[in-house]
Amino acid sequence: MIASLAAVVIPKFGQDSCARANKTFCWDWFRQHWGSTFEPRLVEHIKLTAIAVGIGFVIAFSAALLAHRQRWFETPFSVVSGLLYTIPSLALFEILVPITGLTVTTAEVALVSYTLLILFRNTLTGLRGVRDEVLVAARGMGLTGRQVLWRVELPLAMPAIFAGLRIATVTIISLTTVAAFVVDQGLGAPILNAINVDFKTEFIAAGLLAVALALVADLVLVVTQRVSTPWARRAAG
Amino acid sequence: MRRPGWVPRGGGGLPLTVSPDPDTPRGTAAEVVFDHVTKVYPGRQQPAVDDLSLTIPPGEICVLIGPSGGGKTTALKMVNRLITITEGDILIDGRGVRGLDLAELRRGIGYVIQQVGLFPHMTVADNIATVPRLLGWDKARIANRVGELLELVGLDPTADRKRYPAQLSGGQRQRVGLARALAADPPLMLMDEPFGAIDPITRERLQDEFLRLQREIGKTVIFVTHDIDEAVKMGDRVAILREGGKLAQYDTPDAILARPADDFVARFVGADRGLKRLTLSRIGDLELPPAPAAHDDELTARLTTSLRDALSIMLADGRSQLVAVDDDGNAVGLVTLDRIRAAVSPEAAAEEEGART
Questions:
Q1: Do A231 and B82 touch (CB under 8 A)?
Q2: CB-CB neighbours of B344 under 10 Å
Q3: Nearest CA in chain A to B126
Q4: ipTM beyond 0.85?
Q5: How far is CA A119 from the centre of its chain?
């Protein structure tokens, strides 16, 4: 980490007069470095986030299904995922580095652990929110347990599950910037690069890109939810 | 107990609906027999349903009624095994429900509940198509059936199809619930206080519509209610259960109102059971003496007027007779207080029964 920091103490000014004058934000400098710095970092950031939320969702979703059938499982999983959620991210990286090294794995393990509580809670709340009479009617018509789950309970839990995915995704996009302490990837890398430097363009651009990414991801999830659960919208209207 | 047309088959399903048989006419109804059925909930001493035995002939509406704790809903839910039977068995067309495959059993029984339980994430059409889909009907057949059912229950087969339950009124939801239960043309319907959560005016309309519908489809129906007026109106037969799930009386509404088996039944049906009985007959049902030739200053009532309303009309005007008229206003006969009294007094009823047999 120290070595990588030392190598970038002197910013890459290029021929830009704006950069030499060190204005707050140099649009030209940003454009010149889009292809070499920002675009690949943004793609890395999206990948890190997608993997974390994807794996987190699979784990939390399975755990929620289990807790839905076996009530006893709710408390242990809530306690463990709740504890993980409270550990400061830097501290968690610190704990993991001796085990998994300065690798993407370390970053992902930490990021996944922050998604679990939110995704688990929301999925379980959604499943439990299905009204009794709907379940009685479903069973009374001869749907098997599995059919009740896939055709009735899960579709009705979708709004709650999506709400969880939105919170988890926005949280992880923000947390992934911290993962740059472990791996030289994502929008956290240029932020870390520029943090001890007077020239602020790189720092501001990477930060704004992370914010924009969070907003876009949220919007995509909202639209997906509205399209996939038309009944929820009509119910409100 | 077994009807002559019944032939045992492999697979154990209800043949009519599970594997549609071209030889079986549509709309056939099942006979249901409660055979010494007892339910004891775990951890309870007292049974919820105690040694219940009764036979419901095919095509009849049997109303289960009783005070809370009478076990009427428990009895109903044991038919489709939403509640497991502790002892005894329930036979549908001679086959015990305990031995049938659970999913198959339930897909062959229409089930309507008070809160309806429509699937909020599915359109009206998809809700109705639930059981046909489970049975693997093809799309065209399902679409036809959905349209047919919407019309049957008084909804718009095109406009209402694509609506979601949240966009419907309470009465419309219950109609969709009824259509959904009828979708695979089951020989037996279970209705658990189906109109209990609906405002009185809509309830009465739905009751009338269901009775009209029932005349067409002729299902065997087990109907749970806590409302004695509804029981008298809807039931071909009424089973009154007392606390502890014991059968107090099982008979036609008229017989129960005329001759309550004991004090419990008499109290349960109410001191106005005589008046309730009057609602069961219309003045057109009576044998009436001819009306006096000149009846211009007499009260009149149509033949479809219930005896109760006829009595009320006389009392309201301080008279002791009125003239029954047909739809064109022609006098048909004379209705007197004595004639009405004779129609509902136990002796008269006994005489009528004696004359019939």
A1: no
A2: 22
A3: A151
A4: no
A5: 11
